[in-house]
Amino acid sequence: MCGIVGYLGHRDCSDVLVDTLSNLEYRGYDSAGIAVFDAQNTIQTVKAQGKLQNLRNKLEKNGRPEGHIGIGHTRWATHGEPSDINSHPHSAPRVTIVHNGIIENYQELKEFLIGEGRTFLSETDTEVVAQLLDYYYDGNPLTTIDRVMGEVSGSFALGIMFMDFPDRIYAVRRESPLIVGVADGETFIASDVTAILQYTKNYYLLEHDEIATLTKDSISFVDKRLVPIEKELKVADWDKEAAQKGGYAHFMIKEINEQPNAIMTTVNPRIKDGLPNLEECGLTLEMIREFKSITVVACGTAMHAGLVGKYVIEGIARVPVTVDIASEFRYRNPIIGEGDLVIIISQSGETADSLAALRLAKQRGAKVLAIVNAKGSSIAREADMVIYTLAGPEIAVASTKAYITQISVMYLFAFELALAKDTVSVAECKRLTKALQQMPEAVQYVIDTVDETCKFVGSQLITAESLLYIGRGLDYALSMEGSLKLKEVSYIHSESYAAGELKHGTISLIDDDMPVIAVATQSDLMEKTISNVVEVKSRGAKVILVCTDACAAKIKDGIADYMITIPHTDELLMPITAVVPLQILAYYTSINRGANPDQPKNLAKSVTVE
Ligand code: F6R
Questions:
Q1: Is the distance from the beta carbon of residue 347 to the nearest atom of ligand 1 less than 6 Å?
Q2: Percent of the chain scored above 90 by pLDDT?
Q3: Which of 217, 299, 361, 488 could cross-link with 342 by S-S, CB 3.0 to 4.6 Å?
Q4: For residues 513 and 486, is the Cβ–Cβ distance under 8 A?
């Protein structure tokens, strides 16, 4: 999604803006721009379609705006194609703004403004807000912003510069995230704190409909009634190194390598006397025991983590779990109410559909537990209880370490639930918990041993146009994530099927142009999956089999074209290690096809609009 930055201080503003924007590249974008107050206090704007490098080249060629106060933006096109004109910042005579979000009633506002004699350069909803601010401008930025906020509907985070106030920037948000950073004699705005970590770790979280006024030496806030408010200064616990590549070619592979540590950091503090303990988030055994139903709601990879959770919870705690896609849940009048538990899983904690699902669940009286990576995000703040995945900042668009920590938390939750429901003994729960604590080592081993094979297999997939992932049980839940990973970073079409479903239609697609990736880590289902492998192979498919060493020892040579083997660990926990080759395979396939795995086209890291 779009990224917003703003700077006030002593440094060269153009440099800081481009620098901080580069830290937001991971959010996904198709154009970028900056606007800076120059020495004459006029606003100089430079924008360029495409990557930040295009903006850098333009600044180099045409000269950079010289100044110390300005705003910047990376745009992910919604209204109007990616182009220089549609890029932000957008201006009206006395106002220049950057915007993240969607103004839902922009069309009617635009018609009104056109009727008032205003003209528009771009097709964006953002320019409507700039014009509206200018139209209602009464010499007082706060009352003007307030008036406009009363007129617009939708989601937005805005950075605003008024020509008459060249020493300040205004910031406001509704739904879309925005933080305000502070250092000595410098202030910042940004869509998230990773953008400014190299300058400061101190920041304020702007809440809905609050307005911030920044000068280089001061920050003040008002609420929606324009009453001054005090806000708590927060300190980011992420280092600037965590948001940098640190010698790796891409964030995606760096984050895959960070997984052992991410699991350890997430799991270990939640274990007491050898058993999972989630009391820190307010979940006691008594509460867990009483829930009438469990529904997991999330999007994309986070939803896939919920699917693994379903298999695990149902498997050991014998409690039925529904997993729903947030965009479906929110519009299908779900049967949820008092006594039910809704688990929202989200890396960013800002996904619009997941947030809407959370609000709906709460409205209906359900208790909401959020499993979230970004501290202080909207989902974390609005849920009744939160378990943070402590994966550190995830920068690559394709989620890897967030997924592995999300499923780790689902395991902790499932074990605790099983204890509460008396479906496992304390001894068995301790054994499972210990096995979970050994996962970082097992994941490290897999990272170290599968790399070369995945690189080679990835090189064999370059020309594939479409492929299938198959698996059964937990392997099916996992293969959904494998398939998403591959398609999002390599642009090869892929689907995941329950292996037993193939015969009900999909097998008609199989021929020598359709590689199949089969996942077989569960010994009780292995024979069945292997027969599916034989069926697709005999119809011409090239088969890549991801299986345990125990499985590999049992099957005949030649059953698969390529084998990626991983050590056999506790079978319930196999998704934690088995996801690793699927991630690495997706990574190398992307590179082999000349794509940039960190910034897949059309995708955004944090989907803050519907
Ligand atoms: C895929 C991916 C997405 C996200 C989804 C939800 O690699 O990252 O599918 O999982 O957009 O995002 P969060 O977890 O931030 O709610």
A1: yes
A2: 85
A3: 361
A4: no
